[in-house]
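Dear Dr. H.,

I hope your travels went smoothly. While you were away I took the liberty of generating a structure for the chain from your last submission, since the lab meeting agenda had it listed for discussion. I wanted you to have the full record in hand beforehand rather than looking at slides cold. The sequence, exactly as received, is reproduced here:
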Amino acid sequence: MAERHKVVILGGGFGGLVAAQRLKRADADITLIDRRNFHLFQPLMYQVATGSLSPGDIAAPLRGVLSKQKNTQVLLGEATDIDPVAKRITLRDGGVFPYDSLIVATGSQSSYYGNDQWRTWAPSLKSIEEATDIRHKILYAFEEAERAKTPEDVHAWLTFVIVGAGATGMELAGALAEIANETLRDDFRHINPRDARILLIEGGSRVLPAYPERLSAKGEKLVTKLGVEVLKNVMVTDVNGDGVTFKHGDGKTEQMAAKTVLWAGGIITTAFGKRLAERTQAETDRTGRITVNPDLTVPRFPDIWIVGDLAHAVENGKALPGVAQVAIQGGNYAGRSILARLAGKRGLNKPFHYFNKGDMAVIGRAAAVANIFGIQVSGLLAWLIWLFIHLIYIVEFQSRVMVFIQWGFEYLTFSRGARLITGTAASDVLGPPKAMHGAKDAPITRSADSSH
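The corresponding predicted structure, in token form, is as follows:
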């Protein structure tokens, strides 16, 4: 009796999970491997970081999501190596898994542009741990400012710098402004949280650079209205425990005393992504994304599909962005491709085509910008669209209900129910958050930064 076709999926983010679900009726054995036991709804990570939601609201156990899919098993593990000729995946713990078809959806990690030491002082937003670390840093800053002895110390603790003005940076800045202006305004006796200074630093000439210029300008107007200072054409040259040093476009260098620096910069490939490119001798772009064929397979290896952030897929001469929708559609396409091959239709699939449904970013209360099917909207309407779409894409129904209720209370009261300063030990709670382990601890999910 012939063995059943073995499909291995690396990564339980948007791309990997959708691919597994597409294969639920396949006459094959599906193995989904992720270093975390949950699917993370990355577009709402900033709400965990700013106390609007708890981690459990945006995470769904992978085993639970796929429990009724009898041809699928979920395993906890991290892929570290691959033999594309022998068709074997090796995990960090030494486990070896053969495959007939492989879908790689291992996502990306934050890029500090060769300055990984900055991660100690400026956490990014790629994992649950980093989100709670950011929440710790933000709330702890106000606590320290309340006890500060000098005006200079108060100023340093109440200065927040966000590096990167893409969708994640804009959303963080808007949420942080609302925390200072509304959520905490009556909570302290020696400081006025509204005195907080929030700076949003962007290396390019405009915020939301991936959006149309009109929406970019509208987004800047909305975030500025909340009190955020936007610095454009500015490059960060150093980050440490005292603040940031940055250089303006005209060459002028400036130091800013700030105890809280948050990183919303670019992305780069993971360690496994580098190993896969090395083993398959595939071409990569400047961030390490692997150049794939029109059908999302790796050149010379038609049984390996790459979806999501790791794939450098080009359509109409333009590289597809690293956003959730690309990962979702890519995972769906890879699953359908494998189904077609199992049905004896190898090579008959049409090339992958990305259907761009648009981009959106929420700036604050009843304020957002959205480009939906080419229609540009902003303000309350864009915000309502953002709410609806994000609720739809949350995996578990229970989480949708909980998030909807939380958002309702927050809209009516400005209260943020997850304003907890937590740590892994008492010393963490009583002091500044310790440095995260870094990019290696980022979960295998889509980055989808970013633009949702």
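Two observations you may find useful: Residues 111 and 266 are 5 Å apart (CA to CA). The radius of gyration is 22 Å.

With kind regards,
E. W.
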